[in-house]
Amino acid sequence: ATALAANTWSRVTLLGVEGKSEPTTKKKTSGGSRHIRTAVNRYRKQFIDFFPKGECPYTEHNLSYEWIDVGNGVCEEFYMAKSARKELKCRIRTGTPVKAILTEAKETFADLIITGCDPAGGCVWTEVANTPVRLVNEAPCSALVVKSEKKIDNIVCCLDNDNVSQASLELINQIVTIHKARLTLVGFEDASGALKTEVEQRMYSTLRYYQAVGIEPVIEMVGMDSFATFVSEGRQWGLMAFWLGPQSILKKWLPKARMNRIVKESKASVLILK
Length: 274
What we know:
The protein has nine helices and 13 strands. The protein has about 270 residues and is of the alpha/beta class.
């Protein structure tokens, strides 16, 4: 997440989610319990420390005093820092994780949700196990579920004959660049071969886009009748990306039940592009 932010200078929110019922031993305030605030602060420090000293666009600089009108004819001098070039927010929401994350994504017009999971338990969250799976299915934007088992050095991007958005192509470009990964572009054709020419044309158009930015992908064509087998053999991949934008024909071959299995069982990280 930090490397992606460094490459794109995106606005970033580090979101902590806390259940409504917390053990009484964990002192709770209006800003969330102490343990969740400590965790979010720790992640913020890790995020900032990723950047070379003096080069982080998310840190405040040039602290100075400034007079602010606080109302009723009163001005007060505050110690202000306004020079961060990009926005980094740390927030805590109370409630069920999926609802809290989706609400945050909608309210902030998020382009991408990034979440991790516990790989030992089948890609689950400790308190609400199916959180990663539900985010993939219900997110209003692209969603990335990061696994820790496998280094992302081989990315397989599954496309179709629909027009893939420029934002999705750029996101793959960024991830390939960050990880210095190999990229395979996969196109799908029906059993009759009726879509073959159309798909190949679209694939080569995408190929030329990546070549123009210095990436040399491999193109692979897969029959729709072999889709399930193809995905199940993806153990060697570090990241599987699926374009599921409007009218994507992959939606027919990736119903929720199948996507749930991919997210849960795959050792590869999973990126859903929308």
